[in-house]
Q: What sequence folds into this?
């Protein structure tokens, strides 16, 4: 059979990533072949991936923050572990197993620590941050503060500062 001719340029759309990003406002972000390759090469050049490294991700990968590092790992020859869906118990187990030498943060509004806070469970947020610190080490967990003009961040940032003080973690 005759194969169809494939015609494409660097500026042609490769995919649309639907995300609310750090702003909390839903949108579609067009990535071209060129922007995708440059993102992968930039991460590969700056993230210091090695062939023994492991990347943990979960489907669906709605955010370029999950998809691009996965592709960069493939480029660098590192291992990628992708869960069919996010399963907190499995994620904690995998993080504990592969945490040696890693630096971590408490994450964004979608992360475990802040989700506990947003659901009114400040003690649960403290416990999750402390667990992350136990896993990664006292100097390897940073309490992450973000300010993108989102009301929830203005509400949670002071509480995150308190968590950092309680567990002795850097900001």
A:
């Amino acid at each position: 059979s005759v194969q169809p001719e494939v015609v494409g340029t660097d500026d042609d759309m490769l995919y649309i990533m639907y995300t609310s990003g750090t702003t909390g406002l839903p949108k579609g972000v067009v990535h071209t072949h060129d922007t995708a390759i440059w993102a992968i090469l930039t991460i590969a050049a700056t993230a210091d991936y090695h062939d023994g490294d492991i990347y943990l991700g979960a489907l669906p990968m709605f955010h370029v923050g999950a998809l691009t590092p996965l592709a960069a790992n493939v480029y660098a020859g590192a291992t990628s572990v992708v869960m069919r869906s996010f399963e907190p118990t499995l994620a904690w187990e995998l993080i504990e197993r592969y945490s040696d030498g890693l630096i971590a943060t408490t994450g964004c509004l979608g992360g475990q620590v802040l989700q506990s806070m947003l659901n009114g469970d400040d003690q649960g947020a403290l416990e999750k941050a402390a667990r992350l610190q136990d896993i990664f080490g006292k100097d390897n967990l940073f309490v992450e503060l973000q300010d993108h003009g989102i009301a929830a961040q203005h509400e949670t940032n002071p509480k995150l500062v308190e968590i950092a003080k309680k567990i002795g973690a850097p900001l």
